[in-house]
Write a structure and sequence with these properties.
0% helix; 53% strand; mainly beta; 388 residues; 13-stranded antiparallel sheet; 10-stranded antiparallel sheet
Length: 388
């Protein structure tokens, strides 16, 4: 069973190898040039607001092999690591991506128990204490939904991802303005009607930082100094899509997820789990105010309070899956319109996780079309059930 014990940091930033699946997932938008991440880049939207130049995704998966008999060889894959890395080039409307699969436990495929230190080949993600406090072991406390509590160390992350095959390299340093956001009930995020149909779910939204992006452009190598606004999710689970007696009557085949950094400093999480006929099995998410805002950083939980309405679609010429690329979502905080920055952001991950899915930069606006922020949209299960 998935443990419901209070989360403690930095320990729970680290790996949880007793669970079936776990991932560290970092996405964000990049602005070419120097200055703060909130400064206006060269690109503009139709409403005059700033438009990013690039987006990025780096995801590490740790998967436990559930074979019933112990594996005799030291090289048997009791734990496997998989990874996806991608760059979205908004100006050229192209997606560069790569994937890796390695046995966990070797020098080039490792996670650590005490904090976020993840490596897969030449891709790395590391966490350390940033400028927010003294650090050390800390618990979630009574106000767990807000994070670890006032005075705790904020996170600083360093990220490295490169692919000679896909033609990109990115290095970033990212700082969190607040303590971790514990999704759901103190980090227990339901994904269905069964109590164990859940994940432990920690987010670090509104990450800001700088770095360098190298790309092949028009047959030559180009390097961009970039400013980043990013989002990190860390989840671990045993029954993410339903399994065994605690599974939903109609097992989920995929999900739609949105992690959105709003320009006013707030963060917005929106997701729904879908069944085989497209029926909604569960919805959830949260809204949290900016750091130091009047709301005090306490999130508003959206469990079973969201309505998702697809407004426009795109059909992939590769997988032939049809994805919604523009959405209207009704929430307790109001109505949001989420639209892909461009449609063709499907990732063919059949060599690693086994299925294509859509993952890309998205703009969030109000119903009048005014830009409220940017983030990432993920849609799975449209090209077949996710074999998670």
């Amino acid at each position: 069973m998935l443990s419901a014990a209070p989360l403690r940091f930095p320990r729970d930033h680290g790996a949880h190898p007793g669970t079936r699946v776990e991932w560290w997932y970092v996405t964000g938008v990049l602005y070419a040039g120097t200055g703060s991440a909130s400064a206006a880049p060269s690109g503009k939207n139709g409403d005059g607001s700033a438009r990013p130049d690039f987006g990025f995704q780096l995801t590490f998966f740790r998967v436990r092999n559930d074979l019933k008999r112990p594996l005799s060889s030291a090289f048997s894959p009791d734990q496997v690591m998989l990874g996806h890395a991608a760059i979205s080039d908004l100006g050229r409307q192209r997606l560069l991506h790569d994937q890796q699969v390695l046995r966990h436990g070797f020098a080039n495929a490792r996670t650590e128990l005490d904090d976020t230190r993840v490596r897969l080949g030449n891709w790395q993600l590391r966490r350390m204490n940033g400028a927010g406090g003294a650090g050390g072991a800390r618990g979630a406390g009574a106000g767990a939904g807000a994070g670890a509590g006032a005075g705790d160390a904020h996170s600083r992350y360093t990220l490295l991802m490169a692919s000679e095959h896909a033609g990109f390299a990115l290095e970033l340093t990212l700082d969190a303005p607040q303590s971790p956001l514990l999704q759901g009930r103190a980090g227990w995020s339901r994904k269905g009607p069964g109590e164990q149909q859940a994940s432990r779910y920690v987010s670090e939204p509104q990450l800001a930082g700088t770095g360098r992006l190298a790309l092949r452009e028009d047959g030559r190598n180009a390097t961009h100094e970039v400013r980043a606004r990013a989002w990190l999710d860390h989840e671990w689970s045993n029954q993410y899509l339903g399994r065994g007696a605690d599974a939903a009557p109609e097992r989920a085949v995929g999900w739609d997820w949105m992690g959105l950094n709003l320009d006013d400093g707030a963060s917005l999480t929106l997701f729904r789990m879908r069944g085989q006929d497209g029926a909604v099995i569960w919805t959830g998410g949260s809204w949290r105010a900016e750091a130091g805002g009047a709301a005090g950083g306490a999130p508003v939980d959206f469990e079973q309070q969201l309505q998702f309405e697809p407004l426009a679609f795109w059909k992939s010429p590769v997988s032939l899956a049809t994805y919604p690329v523009r959405w209207r979502i009704r929430t307790p905080r109001g109505v949001y319109v989420v639209e892909a920055a461009y449609a063709a952001q499907e990732i063919d991950a059949r060599r690693s996780t086994g299925f294509p899915y859509w993952e890309g930069v998205a703009r969030v606006a109000d119903e009048a079309g005014r830009t409220l922020g940017w983030g990432y949209l993920e849609m799975t299960g449209y090209a077949g059930k996710v074999p998670l």
